[in-house]
Design a protein that fits this description.
Blueprint (H helix, E strand, L loop, with lengths): L20 E8 L4 H16 L4 H21 L4 E8 L3 E8 L22 H8 L2 E7 L2 E9 L3 H4 L1
Antiparallel strand pairs: 1-2, 2-3, 3-5, 4-5
Helix pairs in contact: 1-2, 2-3
Length: about 150
């Protein structure tokens, strides 16, 4: 299981190496359809880059959950999805304008049995590591997965 990173992190440069591939997409921040568009963008881009099907599935899910979180919990006009790949990792980052909506989560929102409020639980299950970064009045949530075969990653 992953754990949120507690150190500053730059979604453009996962694992402190140069990205081999980088893609960005700006989406409307107040539109729930943005999560679907982010999933499609990351899925199609990852497939085009030749990533393994299991990684594509995980990245697509992560992108959708991160964007849904930004739509639900920020009051951003625009949300930016950044997707980068190095030799060994892939990272999806979602940056919003850092304006938090005054929303009170329902009791037990982080419970795995709830229909809503499970986005970060899903990300935690799929990502090797994930976290957040606030800079220049913007908030970025990111998640990283391994691309290396299990025997090479150890």
């Amino acid at each position: 299981m992953a754990s949120p990173a507690t150190v500053p992190y730059d979604a453009f440069v996962p694992s402190r190496t140069e990205p081999r591939r980088l893609a960005q997409l700006a989406l409307p921040g107040r539109d729930r359809a943005s999560a679907r568009a982010a999933r499609r963008h990351v899925r199609d881009t990852a497939r085009g880059w030749g990533l393994p099907p299991a990684a594509v599935d995980d990245l697509e899910t992560i992108a959708g959950e991160l964007v849904a979180n930004a739509v639900e919990h920020s009051d951003s006009r625009t949300i930016t999805v950044t997707f980068s790949v190095t030799a060994w990792t892939a990272v999806v980052g979602v940056t919003d304008e850092g304006q938090v909506c005054p929303v009170v989560p329902p009791p037990g929102a982080a419970d795995a049995e709830q229909e809503r409020g499970r986005g970060l639980l899903i990300i935690d299950a799929l990502a090797r590591r994930w976290g957040s970064r606030r800079a220049a009045g913007r908030m970025t949530l990111w998640a990283e997965i391994d691309l290396a075969p299990a025997e090479a990653a150890g």
